[in-house]
Amino acid sequence: MTLLVVGSVATALMVTAYALEQRSYWFIGLLSVASAVVSGYSFAVEAWPVGAVEAIWAVVAAYRFRVTRSRVRAVDREMGEQETGAEIRKGYEMAELPIACDMDALGTAERERHGELVATLREAKGVEAVEDGYVLSFPADDAVFQRLAEWVTLERRCCPFLRFELRLSEEDDVVELGLRGREGVRAFLTEELGIA
Questions:
Q1: CA distance 43 to 161
Q2: Range of the domain at 60
């Protein structure tokens, strides 16, 4: 019972932190911690694939927390005044990241693997255009889910302006991948990934 409560609370914190991560880099840090706890809970109940994916996301979120915090602190130092820096932080942390992929964020082997994994997006059996991006539907297959999770892990590093949602619905027999962001992201996805 205690394990179930811990898992439920950690999952709720993880979802909340993900929804609020654009407000402050501290929510990215919370996302990392919550994902790590969910990973531990998943391993404890022998949900190995979920545990592995959450462990990867915990590491990625920790990296994003460190990078975003460094950028914000650099702005504070450049402005020379904490109050002015605080005003800039509100829009700088996530919203002002350029809508452009930085493939230099990946190593050579990672770029090659990213190129292989992006082909998985073409296996989508459905594409739904939403206001801030797209939701792609795939057959509920473990191999597809794992490839998408690996692609998201790499894509988050080279395209930090994107928001990702990966959901497996056994009831609907479908895997859904949400690719979202601020104004301009949907046009970027259409052009760069051929999603329409």
A1: 30
A2: 1-96
